[in-house]
Protein backbone atom coordinates (compact mmCIF):
# COMPACT_ATOMS: atom_id res chain seq x y z
CA UNK A 1 0.00 0.00 0.00
CA UNK A 2 1.58 3.34 -1.01
CA UNK A 3 2.40 5.78 1.76
CA UNK A 4 0.23 8.88 1.94
CA UNK A 5 2.03 12.11 2.85
CA UNK A 6 0.52 15.04 4.68
CA UNK A 7 1.34 17.72 2.13
CA UNK A 8 3.46 18.64 -0.87
CA UNK A 9 6.49 19.42 1.31
CA UNK A 10 6.42 15.98 2.92
CA UNK A 11 6.11 14.29 -0.45
CA UNK A 12 8.96 16.30 -1.94
CA UNK A 13 11.29 15.77 1.03
CA UNK A 14 10.68 12.02 1.12
CA UNK A 15 11.31 11.77 -2.62
CA UNK A 16 14.57 13.71 -2.30
CA UNK A 17 15.59 11.63 0.70
CA UNK A 18 15.10 8.48 -1.37
CA UNK A 19 16.83 9.88 -4.45
CA UNK A 20 19.85 11.10 -2.50
CA UNK A 21 20.03 8.03 -0.24
CA UNK A 22 19.82 10.12 2.94
CA UNK A 23 19.10 7.93 5.99
CA UNK A 24 17.44 10.71 7.98
CA UNK A 25 16.80 14.42 7.93
CA UNK A 26 14.81 17.10 9.72
CA UNK A 27 13.36 20.36 8.41
CA UNK A 28 11.87 23.57 9.74
CA UNK A 29 9.86 26.19 7.85
CA UNK A 30 9.40 29.61 9.44
CA UNK A 31 6.99 32.13 7.94
CA UNK A 32 5.27 35.22 9.27
CA UNK A 33 7.18 35.02 12.52
CA UNK A 34 5.88 31.54 13.30
CA UNK A 35 7.22 28.02 13.03
CA UNK A 36 4.91 26.70 10.32
CA UNK A 37 6.37 23.23 9.99
CA UNK A 38 8.95 21.11 11.80
CA UNK A 39 9.32 17.46 10.89
CA UNK A 40 11.68 14.52 10.63
CA UNK A 41 11.99 11.89 7.90
CA UNK A 42 13.73 8.54 7.80
CA UNK A 43 15.98 7.37 10.60
CA UNK A 44 18.43 9.08 12.92
CA UNK A 45 20.05 5.68 13.49
CA UNK A 46 19.71 2.98 10.85
CA UNK A 47 21.02 0.18 13.07
CA UNK A 48 18.43 0.79 15.79
CA UNK A 49 15.69 1.88 13.39
CA UNK A 50 15.10 5.02 15.43
CA UNK A 51 13.05 7.54 13.43
CA UNK A 52 14.26 11.08 12.82
CA UNK A 53 12.00 13.77 14.26
CA UNK A 54 11.97 17.54 14.61
CA UNK A 55 13.88 16.98 17.88
CA UNK A 56 16.74 14.97 16.33
CA UNK A 57 20.17 16.43 17.13
CA UNK A 58 22.64 16.89 14.25
CA UNK A 59 26.17 18.19 13.87
CA UNK A 60 25.68 21.70 12.52
CA UNK A 61 29.02 21.92 10.68
CA UNK A 62 29.74 25.30 9.05
CA UNK A 63 26.31 26.78 9.76
CA UNK A 64 27.99 27.26 13.17
CA UNK A 65 29.88 30.18 11.61
CA UNK A 66 26.85 32.50 11.62
CA UNK A 67 26.50 31.93 15.38
CA UNK A 68 30.15 32.77 16.00
CA UNK A 69 29.76 35.88 13.83
CA UNK A 70 26.77 36.98 15.90
CA UNK A 71 28.82 36.55 19.08
CA UNK A 72 31.61 38.76 17.72
CA UNK A 73 29.07 41.38 16.63
CA UNK A 74 27.55 41.27 20.13
CA UNK A 75 30.98 41.98 21.61
CA UNK A 76 31.31 44.94 19.25
CA UNK A 77 27.83 46.12 20.28
CA UNK A 78 29.02 46.08 23.90
CA UNK A 79 32.21 48.01 23.12
CA UNK A 80 34.63 45.16 23.78
CA UNK A 81 36.09 45.22 20.27
CA UNK A 82 35.56 46.56 16.77
CA UNK A 83 35.47 44.49 13.62
CA UNK A 84 38.30 46.53 12.14
CA UNK A 85 40.64 45.62 15.03
CA UNK A 86 43.78 43.72 14.00
CA UNK A 87 43.56 40.14 15.23
CA UNK A 88 46.92 40.74 16.96
CA UNK A 89 45.17 43.18 19.32
CA UNK A 90 43.20 40.32 20.84
CA UNK A 91 45.50 37.33 20.37
CA UNK A 92 48.99 37.64 21.84
CA UNK A 93 51.94 36.15 20.01
CA UNK A 94 50.64 36.37 16.47
CA UNK A 95 53.32 36.38 13.74
CA UNK A 96 54.33 39.57 11.95
CA UNK A 97 52.72 38.27 8.75
CA UNK A 98 49.31 38.58 10.43
CA UNK A 99 49.77 42.27 11.23
CA UNK A 100 47.18 43.48 8.71
CA UNK A 101 44.60 40.77 9.32
CA UNK A 102 41.48 42.19 10.98
CA UNK A 103 38.59 40.48 12.73
CA UNK A 104 36.48 41.46 9.72
CA UNK A 105 38.90 39.57 7.47
CA UNK A 106 38.42 36.46 9.60
CA UNK A 107 34.63 36.80 9.55
CA UNK A 108 34.45 37.25 5.77
CA UNK A 109 37.11 34.72 4.67
CA UNK A 110 39.36 37.46 3.30
CA UNK A 111 42.35 36.97 5.64
CA UNK A 112 44.70 35.09 3.32
CA UNK A 113 45.28 32.42 5.98
CA UNK A 114 45.43 28.74 5.09
CA UNK A 115 42.04 27.22 4.41
CA UNK A 116 42.17 24.63 7.20
CA UNK A 117 44.43 23.86 10.11
CA UNK A 118 47.20 21.53 8.82
CA UNK A 119 46.51 18.72 11.27
CA UNK A 120 44.82 15.33 10.98
CA UNK A 121 41.13 16.20 11.27
CA UNK A 122 40.30 12.72 12.57
CA UNK A 123 42.51 13.15 15.65
CA UNK A 124 41.90 15.06 18.82
CA UNK A 125 43.78 18.29 19.38
CA UNK A 126 43.16 21.70 20.88
CA UNK A 127 42.66 25.15 19.40
CA UNK A 128 46.13 26.00 20.69
CA UNK A 129 47.54 23.08 18.68
CA UNK A 130 45.84 24.39 15.53
CA UNK A 131 47.06 27.95 16.04
CA UNK A 132 50.63 26.77 16.67
CA UNK A 133 50.57 24.69 13.49
CA UNK A 134 49.36 27.57 11.31
CA UNK A 135 51.54 30.40 12.65
CA UNK A 136 54.67 29.53 10.61
CA UNK A 137 52.77 29.17 7.32
CA UNK A 138 52.82 32.01 4.76
CA UNK A 139 49.65 33.86 3.79
CA UNK A 140 48.08 32.80 0.49
CA UNK A 141 47.26 36.43 -0.42
CA UNK A 142 47.22 39.89 1.12
CA UNK A 143 44.42 40.41 3.67
CA UNK A 144 41.35 41.87 1.98
CA UNK A 145 42.56 41.07 -1.53
CA UNK A 146 39.95 38.39 -2.20
CA UNK A 147 37.47 36.00 -0.65
CA UNK A 148 38.61 32.42 -0.08
CA UNK A 149 36.74 30.17 2.33
CA UNK A 150 38.81 29.64 5.46
CA UNK A 151 37.75 27.45 8.37
CA UNK A 152 40.83 28.38 10.36
CA UNK A 153 39.73 32.03 10.55
CA UNK A 154 36.79 30.97 12.70
CA UNK A 155 39.06 28.88 14.92
CA UNK A 156 40.86 32.15 15.65
CA UNK A 157 37.57 33.95 16.28
CA UNK A 158 36.75 31.34 18.90
CA UNK A 159 40.04 32.19 20.58
CA UNK A 160 39.27 35.92 20.35
CA UNK A 161 35.97 35.33 22.17
CA UNK A 162 37.85 33.47 24.92
CA UNK A 163 40.43 36.24 25.28
CA UNK A 164 37.80 38.99 25.46
CA UNK A 165 35.30 37.26 27.76
CA UNK A 166 37.29 34.75 29.82
CA UNK A 167 34.91 32.04 28.59
CA UNK A 168 35.32 29.37 25.94
CA UNK A 169 33.39 30.30 22.82
CA UNK A 170 30.72 27.67 23.54
CA UNK A 171 30.31 28.85 27.13
CA UNK A 172 29.83 32.42 25.93
CA UNK A 173 27.21 31.27 23.42
CA UNK A 174 25.35 29.37 26.13
CA UNK A 175 25.35 32.36 28.48
CA UNK A 176 24.48 35.10 26.03
CA UNK A 177 22.39 33.36 23.35
CA UNK A 178 21.27 29.79 23.89
CA UNK A 179 19.89 30.00 27.43
CA UNK A 180 18.11 33.37 26.91
CA UNK A 181 16.59 32.01 23.68
CA UNK A 182 15.64 28.67 25.29
CA UNK A 183 17.76 26.80 22.74
CA UNK A 184 17.98 23.93 25.19
CA UNK A 185 19.52 21.32 22.88
CA UNK A 186 22.22 23.42 21.20
CA UNK A 187 25.71 22.74 22.54
CA UNK A 188 29.29 22.07 21.58
CA UNK A 189 29.93 18.73 19.89
CA UNK A 190 31.50 16.28 22.34
CA UNK A 191 31.63 12.52 21.81
CA UNK A 192 31.80 11.87 25.56
CA UNK A 193 28.56 13.70 26.33
CA UNK A 194 25.37 11.63 26.27
CA UNK A 195 22.96 13.48 23.97
CA UNK A 196 19.42 12.15 23.69
CA UNK A 197 18.28 11.92 20.08
CA UNK A 198 21.72 12.47 18.55
CA UNK A 199 21.85 11.37 14.91
CA UNK A 200 24.47 8.91 13.70
CA UNK A 201 26.41 9.96 10.60
CA UNK A 202 26.56 7.92 7.39
CA UNK A 203 28.22 7.80 3.99
CA UNK A 204 27.94 5.75 0.83
CA UNK A 205 30.72 3.41 -0.30
CA UNK A 206 29.58 2.37 -3.75
CA UNK A 207 25.98 1.37 -3.11
CA UNK A 208 26.53 0.43 0.54
CA UNK A 209 25.58 2.69 3.43
CA UNK A 210 28.36 2.78 6.03
CA UNK A 211 28.88 4.35 9.43
CA UNK A 212 31.10 7.41 9.51
CA UNK A 213 33.28 7.79 12.62
CA UNK A 214 32.50 11.15 14.14
CA UNK A 215 35.15 13.86 14.06
CA UNK A 216 36.59 14.71 17.43
CA UNK A 217 37.15 18.27 16.16
CA UNK A 218 34.76 20.68 17.87
CA UNK A 219 36.12 24.13 17.04
CA UNK A 220 34.24 27.36 16.42
CA UNK A 221 34.48 26.75 12.67
CA UNK A 222 31.77 24.07 12.85
CA UNK A 223 31.51 22.46 16.27
CA UNK A 224 27.89 22.86 17.36
CA UNK A 225 25.13 20.29 17.81
CA UNK A 226 21.53 21.43 17.41
CA UNK A 227 17.98 20.77 16.22
CA UNK A 228 15.82 22.47 13.60
CA UNK A 229 13.57 23.73 16.39
CA UNK A 230 16.43 25.47 18.15
CA UNK A 231 17.54 27.04 14.87
CA UNK A 232 14.01 28.36 14.35
CA UNK A 233 14.41 30.18 17.68
CA UNK A 234 17.76 31.50 16.44
CA UNK A 235 16.07 32.73 13.28
CA UNK A 236 13.45 34.55 15.36
CA UNK A 237 16.22 36.34 17.28
CA UNK A 238 17.74 37.48 13.98
CA UNK A 239 14.40 38.95 12.94
CA UNK A 240 13.16 40.34 16.25
CA UNK A 241 16.37 41.64 17.78
CA UNK A 242 15.90 40.37 21.33
CA UNK A 243 19.68 40.28 21.82
CA UNK A 244 21.28 42.07 18.89
CA UNK A 245 20.29 45.63 18.06
CA UNK A 246 18.91 46.32 14.55
CA UNK A 247 22.19 47.84 13.38
CA UNK A 248 24.12 44.82 14.68
CA UNK A 249 21.78 42.38 12.95
CA UNK A 250 22.05 44.35 9.73
CA UNK A 251 25.84 44.19 9.98
CA UNK A 252 25.70 40.40 9.62
CA UNK A 253 24.23 40.74 6.14
CA UNK A 254 26.44 43.44 4.62
CA UNK A 255 28.63 42.21 1.73
CA UNK A 256 32.35 42.50 2.35
CA UNK A 257 34.27 45.29 0.61
CA UNK A 258 37.59 44.11 -0.82
CA UNK A 259 40.78 46.15 -1.15
CA UNK A 260 39.84 47.14 -4.71
CA UNK A 261 36.58 48.66 -3.33
CA UNK A 262 34.46 46.02 -5.03
CA UNK A 263 32.01 44.05 -2.92
CA UNK A 264 31.87 40.28 -2.64
CA UNK A 265 28.50 38.63 -1.79
CA UNK A 266 29.47 37.29 1.60
CA UNK A 267 28.50 38.83 4.93
CA UNK A 268 29.50 37.62 8.38
CA UNK A 269 28.99 33.87 8.18
CA UNK A 270 26.39 34.17 5.40
CA UNK A 271 26.40 33.88 1.61
CA UNK A 272 24.35 36.71 0.09
CA UNK A 273 22.36 36.22 -3.10
CA UNK A 274 19.48 37.84 -4.94
CA UNK A 275 18.73 41.45 -5.82
CA UNK A 276 17.28 44.47 -3.97
CA UNK A 277 13.84 43.56 -2.68
CA UNK A 278 14.57 39.84 -3.10
CA UNK A 279 17.71 39.40 -1.05
CA UNK A 280 18.54 35.98 0.39
CA UNK A 281 21.08 34.96 3.02
CA UNK A 282 22.05 31.31 3.15
CA UNK A 283 24.82 29.01 4.24
CA UNK A 284 25.55 25.31 4.09
CA UNK A 285 27.64 23.04 6.21
CA UNK A 286 29.30 19.69 5.70
CA UNK A 287 31.40 17.32 7.77
CA UNK A 288 31.76 13.54 7.64
CA UNK A 289 28.28 12.04 7.92
CA UNK A 290 26.34 15.32 7.98
CA UNK A 291 25.03 18.07 5.72
CA UNK A 292 23.18 21.22 6.77
CA UNK A 293 21.59 24.27 5.14
CA UNK A 294 20.03 27.49 6.45
CA UNK A 295 18.08 29.69 3.99
CA UNK A 296 16.36 32.97 4.91
CA UNK A 297 14.74 35.93 3.19
CA UNK A 298 16.15 39.32 4.12
CA UNK A 299 13.33 41.23 2.42
CA UNK A 300 10.63 38.75 3.45
CA UNK A 301 9.74 36.60 6.42
CA UNK A 302 10.45 33.02 5.38
CA UNK A 303 13.30 30.78 6.53
CA UNK A 304 14.06 27.12 5.84
CA UNK A 305 16.41 24.86 7.78
CA UNK A 306 17.49 21.38 6.66
CA UNK A 307 19.72 19.05 8.71
CA UNK A 308 20.71 15.59 7.43
CA UNK A 309 22.84 12.66 8.58
CA UNK A 310 24.64 12.03 5.30
CA UNK A 311 26.57 14.28 2.94
CA UNK A 312 23.95 15.38 0.42
CA UNK A 313 22.58 18.32 -1.56
CA UNK A 314 20.42 19.68 1.23
CA UNK A 315 20.49 23.12 -0.38
CA UNK A 316 18.37 21.63 -3.15
CA UNK A 317 15.94 20.34 -0.55
CA UNK A 318 15.73 23.77 1.08
CA UNK A 319 14.94 25.36 -2.29
CA UNK A 320 12.25 22.78 -2.98
CA UNK A 321 10.60 23.49 0.36
CA UNK A 322 10.63 27.23 -0.42
CA UNK A 323 8.89 26.58 -3.74
CA UNK A 324 6.17 24.58 -2.02
CA UNK A 325 5.72 26.79 1.05
From TrEMBL:
Residues of the Beta-lactamase-related domain: 9-312
Cited InterPro entries: AmpC-like, Beta-lactam-related, Beta-lactam/transpept-like
Pfam families per the UniProt record, alphabetical: Beta-lactamase (PF00144)
PANTHER family the UniProt entry points to: BETA-LACTAMASE-RELATED DOMAIN-CONTAINING PROTEIN, D-ALANYL-D-ALANINE-CARBOXYPEPTIDASE/ENDOPEPTIDASE AMPH
Protein name: CubicO group peptidase (Beta-lactamase class C family)
